[in-house]
Amino acid sequence: MKVKTKSKKVNKAWLNDHVNDPYVKMAQREGYRARAAYKLKEIDETLRLIRPGQLVVDLGAAPGAWSQYLRRRFAPAGAAAGGLDGRIIAVDLLEFEPIEGVEVLQGDFRDDAVLQALEERLGGRPVDVVVSDMAPNLSGIESADAARIAHLVELAVEFALRHLRPEGALVCKTFHGSGYSQQVKLFKESFRIVKPIKPKASRDKSAETFLVGLGPKPR
Length: 219
Hints:
The protein is of the alpha/beta class and about 220 residues long. It is built from seven helices and seven strands. It has helices at about 1-20, 20-30, 35-45, 65-75, 110-120, 140-165, 180-190, and strands at about 55-60, 85-90, 100-105, 125-130, 165-175, 190-195, 210-215. The protein has a seven-stranded mixed sheet, sandwiched between helices. Helix 4 (about 65-75) links the parallel strand 1 (about 55-60) and strand 2 (about 85-90). Helix 3 (about 35-45) crosses helix 4 and helix 6 packs parallel to helix 7. The longest helix is centred in the C-terminal third of the chain and has 22 residues, at about 140-165. The radius of gyration is 18 Å and the shape is globular. Residues about 1-5 have low confidence and may be disordered.
């Protein structure tokens, strides 16, 4: 019973933090599905990655907040609906509510068939930016979780190196902890410029951080 009580306290504390979170309130006010939109927004405003007319691939897109942000960047006056100057392809294992103008491919990015379907949609056109908010289901076993995280980062880097323009960029979520230094090393081997960023919208308690690779190195 003590464990149960403790669990309830933890859940109540998380809910209280969530409800009072300024980014949650801002997301509700501005029509974003999740506070995560502001993580990509800060990264974009810092590095000026997203511009109208681009082709962007959004990996791990559900519930769609990053695609919503991209969509507004591509729309005249930042509209959430209407004309779109650019193309967004969103991929996720989970189904999520459609976003006007965003192409959604449902499936597991680790599956070769899904990757092939995504490449067919690209039709040989180089990608301007790849954004990855992919994260595995965590088991609590550090070594297993680190391996799952690293695998998703490696897949995102491999896809980016195959499909990005020479001046393209990859934004990839990862976590501080076991394996992080190896992921930084992989980015430095793969991109001309590497920038680690922890946006203000990423909670202080979270080990989450983002690696940005600019300009894929020739393979």
